[in-house]
Amino acid sequence: MNNDHEKERRWRLVLGSQDSSQCLSERDVRIASALDALYQNNNSSKNGGRGARGGLNRSAPTVSKWLGDIREFFPSSVVQVIQKDAFDRLGLKQMLTEPEFLAAVEADVHLVADLISLRSVMPEKTIDTAREVIKKVVDELIEKLERKTAEAVRGALNKSKRTFRPRHADIDWHRTITANLRHYQEDLNTIIPEKLIGYKRQHRRVVDLDEVILCVDQSGSMATSVVYSSIFAAVMASLPGVKTQLICFDTAILDLTEELNDPVQVLFGVQLGGGTDINQAVAYCESKIERPSKTHLILITDLYEGGDANELKNRVANLIRQDVNVITLLALNDDGKPSYSAHLAQEFAAIGSPVFACTPDQFPDLMATALKREDVLTWAGDQDIVTVRPVEDTTV
Predict the structure, then answer these.
(1) For position 375, what pLDDT does the model report?
(2) Under 8 Å CB-to-CB from 335, ≥6 apart: which residues?
(3) Three-state DSSP state, 5
(4) Among 205, 309, 348, 353, who pairs with 326 as Cys (CB 3.0-4.6 Å)?
(5) 0.85 cut: is pTM over it?
C-alpha cells in the first residue's frame, strides 16, 4: 500500500500542481508549483492547452524565491540542471548575458535580490555590470536611510548629551530646524539656522559600547530583507557608538561582519536560497556575545525552522534570561504581509521576544527604541504595527 501511495505521489508531481490531489502534502504542492513555473510555462500547444500557467515573471514567484525553493527541494546536481533549463526556456540566459539589458533596466531592491540569487551562475562578462546595478541601488538606499539611522542611533546612545557646536555629522536636523523656524527667509525659500543643535560626541570605552547582532535568514523568501539588513548593518557599523555584526544563514552560517565597510561586497557574499537552520545560527550568535546586558540580537526570519525548534526556543529563552534584547522581525521590507510560521511566532512571543514585521522606514526608530531599552511592543503599537500575540501555554 505504501508503494502504491508513493507511486501515485510521484505521478502527481510529474503531472504538476494543477493535477494534485489529497495524496500530496503541502511540501509536495510547493515542489510541483516550483516545477510548474518552469516546465509548464507557455506550452499550451504541446499539452493540449493546459500549460499556460506559472513562469518566473513578477506576478509569479520571483526569481530569488524560485531559486530558493529548488535549492531547498533538490540536490545540487539537480539544481544545476533546472537552472540551465530556466536560462534556455525562460529567457533568463539572455538577461544575464547582455550587460546592456541590465544597464537599461529599472533597478530596485527586488532586482538586486534576483541578481545576487543568480550570481553563482552569472557569465563573467555580466558580473561587472551586475555589480554596478547593485551599487546604484545600494547607494540610493543608503542616501535615503543613512541620515535617519545615524540620527536615531546617536540620539538613543546620547539621549541627554546635547551641544550647540556640533560637528556637521552630529547635527540633529529635526531639532535644529524646529529651533530656527523663525529665521525662515521667504525670498530664499529656506531657513537660515542661527543656532545648531546636535549630539555631543563622547569617547566611549569599548566595554561601554552597545552591540547589535543582525542575524538574517537568507532563504529565498527573505531576499529583500537580506538586502535591507545588509545596508542597515553597514550604516550602523560606521557609527562610533555601537558595535555591529551581520550574520546570514540558511543551513550554513555566513559571518559578514568584516565586510561591512563595503555593502556591495556583503551582498555578493550572500547566497540566497536553500533550507533553514535558525537554531544553529542563534547558537553561533550566542558564541559571539560577550556582554549580554549590552547586546541586542535582531533575528530576521520567517521562523520556518528546518532544525531543532524546541532547542531554538530554549536557546532564545536563555538569552532573554541573560538580559539579551532579542527582537524577532518576520520581514524587513515593504512587500506587505509576510508569510511566516504562526505557531513558532506565538511561542517566541510567549518567551519574551517581540515578534512583528517592519519596514525599512521604521527600522531606525526601532533600533533607537531597542538601544534605549524601551518597550518595543509599545513602540510598535504607536506605529500601528501588528505584533504577534503569545500562546496561552508554552513549555520552554
Answers:
(1) 93
(2) 224
(3) helix
(4) 353
(5) no
Decide if 17 contacts 51 (C-beta within 8 A).
no
**Residue 296, by phi and psi: left (phi above 0), alpha (psi -120 to 50) or beta?**
beta
d(CA 355, CA 79): 34
Predicted pLDDT of residue 28: 74
* Three-state secondary structure string covering 174-231: HHHHHHCHHHEECCCCEECCCCCCEECCCCCCHHHCEEEEEEEECCHHHHHHHHHHHH
* pLDDT at 195 (0 to 100): 78
Indicate the SS3 state at residue 214: strand
Which triple of cell numbers denotes residue 140?
540610493
Closest CA to 306 of 251, 352, 363: 251
The answer to whether 13 and 24 are in contact (CB under 8 A) is yes
Task: Find cell 546604484 and name the residue.
Answer: 136
Question: CA 113 to CA 133: how far, in whole Å?
Answer: 11
Q: What is the mean pLDDT of each run of 10 residues along the chain (396 residues)?
A: 63 56 67 75 41 41 66 75 70 62 70 79 78 87 84 68 65 79 82 74 52 91 89 88 91 92 87 85 96 95 94 97 96 86 95 95 91 91 93 54
Q: Show the DSSP H helices in 252-296 as ranges.
A: 263-269, 278-288
Nearest to 70 by CA among 20, 114, 34, 120: 34
DSSP state of 60: S
R_g of the chain, CA atoms, integer Å:
24
**Residue 380: per-residue pLDDT:** 94
Given this model, what pLDDT does residue 61 score?
Answer: 38
- Contact criterion met (CB below 8 Å) for 233 and 264: no
- Scan for cell 535558525, then name that residue: 278
* β-pairing verdict for 325-332 and 242-249: unpaired
The whole-angstrom separation of Cα 150 and Cα 301 is 24
Q: Distance between CA 227 and CA 231 in Å, rounded?
A: 7
Reference 232, options 337, 359, 134, 339; nearest CA is: 359
> Residue 200: what pLDDT?
59
Residue 201: per-residue pLDDT: 54
Placement of cell 534584547 in the chain: 325
Give the single-character DSSP code of 61. -
Residue 91 backbone zone (phi > 0: left; psi -120 to 50: alpha; other: beta): left
